[in-house]
Amino acid sequence: MTADLPPRLARMSRVPARLLSRGVPMGPLRLLRTTGRRSGLLRTAPVALLKFDGREWLVSPFGDTHWVHNVRADGRAELGRGRRFRRVRLTEVTGGREQAVLDAYRRKFRIVPFVRDTFDARPDAPRPVFLIDPPT
Fold this sequence. Notes:
- By secondary structure, the protein is of the alpha+beta class.
- The chain has 5 helices and 6 strands, in the order ααβββαββααβ.
- The protein has a 6-stranded antiparallel barrel with strand order 1-2-3-6-5-4.
- It is globular and about 35 Å long.
């Protein structure tokens, strides 16, 4: 089952996606390009990049979204904005190790209403965490 974004957020995410695709810097926001797990087509989603403990991380605050399923099917992806993308390998972190990253994500992005609301509404919901590494 795939988690759907709240309708308001789905509409709002189009704005940063367009700005990022034109190369406009938006703080920690980047475009994540994955290969569709069923279609094989290139899929793009705006994500917030977290720098924590000397590493880079991606968190899906809404759970198992489409980009999460695509990354699980093929750990390769690209992160960037405009014409500048870098290839990365995304490895899901499990077994309790993800809690420190989730805590850091929540602290860093707590001023963003949808992050705060999502964590407050469903505090124990699963939120996939991925470590960003260079491609292998």
